[in-house]
């Protein structure tokens, strides 16, 4: 199954704009569907797995955990991260970046009770200066060409001082069929159906995903598959 990526064709959510200062109802429904998918199809479970791996025994007297979330969407992963930290008494601050202002407006509204999160508009291929203890990027690389995906990975590595986690879909026939079936029977809103089916065709294969990290100059990284049709690359400890 060959990757289908045309830079002239965008997912509909990437084209969303504010209308009279407000996001469209269609965008809000689509982002709610993505939140449901993240909860039930692997994005949250991957996040929890690595939070436990890296921070479960973090001393409470440590300075606040500084996290950077690239391509945050409506901010549901940062909110889950904050809730996880709150339960364990771990202070945390999160900078969450997205390029689309309409999406960010939804994220800010849904995150009103999360002062730990600060949202920024920016291009994740080159955004930011400084360093964060944990840098995350979930379900974003398939939006980019190979060249730009590598730039995202180079930038993510540049901004991380300790831990790095990038997760996305894995392109395969089973995943393509599963998404087609899911959007035919359950998630039938036009934006969600269009974007979900495009996303799996644009996603990288397991081999291609690994190759991106190598081309980005990542060292001592790990790579594995996760349910459902997900894969992740991570670095346990950044080595200068």
Q: Which key terms come to mind for this protein?
A:
7-stranded mixed sheet; Rossmann fold
Q: Can you put this structure into words, describing what you see?
A:
With 240 residues, the chain is of the alpha/beta class. It has a single domain, classed as 3-Layer(aba) Sandwich (Rossmann fold), CATH 3.40.50. The protein is built from 8 helices and 7 strands, in the order ααβαβαββαβαααββ. It has helices at residues 25-40, 43-55, 76-87, 101-110, 146-159, 173-185, 190-202, 206-215, and strands at 65-70, 92-98, 117-121, 132-138, 160-169, 222-226, 230-235. It has a 7-stranded mixed β-sheet, with helices on both faces. α2 (43-55) runs parallel beside α3 and α6 runs antiparallel to α7 (190-202). It starts with 24 loop residues before the first helix and ends in a 5-residue tail after the last strand. The mean pLDDT is 97.
β-strand amount: 15-25%
Number of helices: 8
Radius of gyration: 17 Å
Give the overall pLDDT as a whole number. 97
Chart the SSEs and their pairings.
Elements: H1 25-40, H2 43-55, E1 65-70, H3 76-87, E2 92-98, H4 101-110, E3 117-121, E4 132-138, H5 146-159, E5 160-169, H6 173-185, H7 190-202, H8 206-215, E6 222-226, E7 230-235
Parallel strand pairs: 1-2, 1-4, 2-3, 4-5
Antiparallel strand pairs: 5-7, 6-7
Short note summarizing the structure:
The protein has 240 residues and is an alpha/beta fold. It has helices at residues 25-40, 43-55, 76-87, 101-110, 146-159, 173-185, 190-202, 206-215; strands spanning 65-70, 92-98, 117-121, 132-138, 160-169, 222-226, 230-235.
